[in-house]
Amino acid sequence: MPTNTVNFVKIAWIGKHFGEEPPLVGKRGAGAIFFSGCNLRCVYCQNYQISQQNLGEKYSIDELVAAMLKLQKNGALNIDLVTPTIWLKQIRQAIIKAKEKGLKIPIIWNSNAYENAEDIKTLKGLVDVYLPDFKYGDENLAFRYSGAKNYVEKAKKTIKEMLAQVGNPKLSKNTAKSGIFVRHLILPGQIKNSFRVLEILADLGPGLCLSLMTQYRPVYRAKEFPEINRNIRKEEFKKVFNYSLRLGFKNGWTQKMNNQTGFLPDFTKRNPFSKRVCQNANKRDF
User: What is the pTM of this model?
Assistant: First the structure.
């Protein structure tokens, strides 16, 4: 497990969120908790205000527990832990305490997949839904754009462990009670990277639920990298989507291309997500 021994977490925003995959939000919304800080340094991060600039406030473990219980009381469909990796030890403690105090809705671990599989093992029985974003099939790109070494092998082992714990999604009344949903953010001009990601995921077994994201925008430091300093193009998305079908993916969602601008949050606001974000969050089935 991480060696971080501090007894607090840092959180940027807590509230109902409608920008996740349809089975994770339903009509009630996911009970999102956006944590500050990140173990990656993505130059194009849309949440850079909190992941890189550390915007947020400190919460004790008990305050995090109270936040989870309040989200449940307010009707949230689940607890959506966004960018939780660096706070794993503290969050694990909070989940255990919250369950002891009556937390019953599913727990989502919403991460970048750059995690130690051994750490993820400590979450077995505590996390119901895993939502990793498998970003890279190319180690050079992982280091260039996110400062990550050995990303591919590390993420692959982590996703295997997640899949072993919860399996493919199990739905009740079109909402997810458990399972793994694997995301992939398509980067402009990096189609071969996406192809390699899909090939790796296809090897993990049939029935894997895939979410192809087109929401990339050239924000934060993207202008320093000319090859990704633009939106993705429709033809790029089509190539990736068609390749996923060729590999046998049948379950999942894709974002509509015209939704890209709606996903940019502003964490300096009381509610960082505009109504447009919520309206544009719906994805169409494969």
Answer: 0.94
